[in-house]
Amino acid sequence: QVQLVESGGGLVHSGGSLRLSCAASGSISSITAMGWYRQAPGKQRELVALITGGSSTNYADSVQGRFIISRDNAKVYLQMNSLRPEDTAVYYCYAQRQIGGLYVSSWGQGTQVTVSS
Fold first, then answer.
1. pLDDT > 90? residue 75
2. How many CA atoms lie within 13 Å of 104's alpha carbon, on the beta-carbon side?
3. Strand ranges, E, within the chain
């Protein structure tokens, strides 16, 4: 099992910045990738950014060039710059683990990010 705890959400004006943090605990040696998803009201959860054990990164087109994901062992961060009202959502930390031939997903409880116009 892996437990994920996020922090760093809040309210910011359009154009501002926030940094989200997520700390993993438990079976962290089996983690192959970590990242962030978000879910706005009435919308499906979507990938924001992902970083693998080899430090390869993947970003949603909507955040490319504005958000930066980084990882330090069992912690993952999301630096969010030039925030827009459409970035408002609950942001969830995500970890992917490989157990034998299976990939298992773990999720944090979510942290609210609100961007005012």
1. yes
2. 14
3. 2-7, 10-13, 18-26, 31-39, 46-52, 57-59, 67-72, 75-80, 89-99, 102-107, 111-116
DSSP state of 44: -
Average pLDDT of 99-109? 93
Q: Which amino acid, 115?
A: V
pLDDT surpasses 90 at 73 = no
**Mean pLDDT score of the chain:** 95
Q: Within 10 Å of residue 111's Cβ, how many Cβ atoms?
A: 22
- Return the structure tokens found at 46: 């979507």
Q: How far apart are the first and last CA of the chain?
A: 40
